[in-house]
Amino acid sequence: MNLREFGFGEFSFLLLSARWTILLSLIAFAGGGILGILVGSLRISASKPLRMIAAGYIRFFQSTPILIQLFMAYYGTAFIGLSPDPWTAAAITFSLNSAAFFGDIVRGSIEAIPSGQWEAAKALSLRFVPTLRLVIFPQALKLMLPPTVGFMVQIVKTTSVASLIGLTELARTATMINTVTFEPMLVFGTVALIYFALCWPLSLLAKRLERRLEVEGRGRAALA
Amino acid sequence: MFKTRLRTIVAGCAALAMSALLLTAAPRQAAAETVDDIISRGKVVIAIDTTTPPYGMIDEEFQPAGFDIEFAKLIGAALGVPVEFVTVTSPGRIPALLTNRADLVVSIFSITAPRALQVNFSIPYAGQSAVVIAPKSSNIKSHADLVGKKVGLTRGTGEDGLLTEAAKANPGIEILRFDDYASLLQAMVSGQIDAMGGGDYGDIYLKKSDKGEDFEMKYILKTFYFGVGVRRGNPDILQWLNTFIFTLKQDGTLERLSQKYRNTPLPPLPVF
Amino acid sequence: MQSYVFQFGPILIRSEELIHGAWLTIWFASVSMILGLAIGILGAVARSFGPRWLSRIVAAYVELIRNTPLLIQLYFVFFTLPFLGLKLSSSAAAILALSIHLGAYATEIMRAGIQSIPSGQIEAAKSLGLKPYKIIRHIVLLQALRAIYPALCGQFILQLLGTSIISAIAAEELTAIANNMVMQTFRSFEVYIVVAIIYFVLVQGFILLFQGFSRFFFRWKT
To answer: CB distance B155–C87 less than 8 Å?
Structure first.
């Protein structure tokens, strides 16, 4: 077998393989987002055991490398009779992992809402969940947005780790192309550019949202 | 207004997550235990690795290709069912079988006794010598010459075992373990390692690289034989595979594959 | 599926290797934290007070690194720098890539810290006749460090966890040693459980260490 040039075909193959990176990122974002809201809400709930469970969850996922979590989900689940394929293992691991980080973002944003809002809701005899849903979340969402978009950048980049369990996404395709072309500079340079093209707009958006929030905050402070 | 927007966002996320789950949690077929199971199910699931040229790689159309892949397709053709490929990394081969992700593993799977505690092997369909490859300019003839040098290998391969032992016996050999063959070859071409343990096709392969003329095979470590990995306790599948490999050996198919992908004849393939 | 029997024995008799791996992980993390912080401080000063061209270069560095995966940066340093004449060992390449990676985040974090310092303080220091170097060191950096300390520590922890992927360029650390063990014992679940616990303990240890540091270094009142 002969080596071949890194040509347009190889380039577009790499570019196309980015769709798996995007898909995995979206799964992690959606799954992690929903779970994260749950974890974040539990983290500030009135019940101490629930708070502890949520805190433990966050701490576990933030204190172990995602690579080890991924290996555990992929190789290590055989003992309970599960046999996830790389996609299922990656989808579950990335969702659970990002839920821990989203949970922290949700908690931080909710805690930033002035306690007067809670008291007002209580005065209206609203329970915990309706208070969260109707009063606190709509306000916290605005605070959550910039760090959430910022964390999406992390998710996109971290999906590259899934290549290490054989999931054929952007980074693994790069290795595949590299073995038949031996052009590491071109291959990894191209891949770096593709990741950059995916992440940079998100980074810029996060920064802009952050700035807008700051300006609004200043305006509100001036009014108060 | 904000409430409705919140609701749409939440609903959107939920829909995305649901579709993602549906997408990934495809129903899992029951493990095939006999050849009849495979045929009645209508497909054979074979684990391959596309980062191990010339056995597994991608061709000009970016489809899996190579010695192992063509051999795997022959298995499917002989069974009369389409082949479904699942890609695995080299550490993922045994788990792929143990967890029913694949019926068979066809991925430069060297037959070793420790592995045989976990999975069954068919008789070998290919073999190659694990060799030490280094730049032509370096004078390496045995383990002793590797002292003071960086020697690369792929984690968990036959070369890993042999060279790790050699490093114990000859202090001063620095072993670098890579997670895949591609990285190992790349490290050799980049000059990050002074020598590498690999298959005997390796120097042929390296010759095709820009600086490849500089590399040659230095000495043979041991000859390894590749078998098809099967879950333990499936004698029917194993027996069929052995028979099938026997016929391919007799009619010269395996030799043809070896010339096509490795540019060298196969070593004599013993049976057990 | 036969029921699974846990066997931690084959792993625990090799705890010496695991301890060695943990030590290597601590080493990679600590060295790259120190170098990364140094890059971050220099970068943030250059970004905030340097000439425009320098500030632009630093900004480009930060954006480039923060928007590409560490894995690709590792591949780049290890596999392509030799073609440019810079050949580094696995460990050196890992340290370089890790430090450059952390440096970009540290630059951005430090810059935010510098911005948080009221400009009145700098003007006051100027009117006291302090030299720019002293103003930056005593007025700006110390306060900035204190303001962004929690964010910096969070990034440090991510760095510690990030070292788990440097085995991709054959650097030896905890995850690489775990993978060797999996290959030899085939006890993947047990190995990864034990390794996860070690990482967890390491992270908690670093958090405690960081808290101790802050109590020691940031004693002054605001």
So the answer is: no
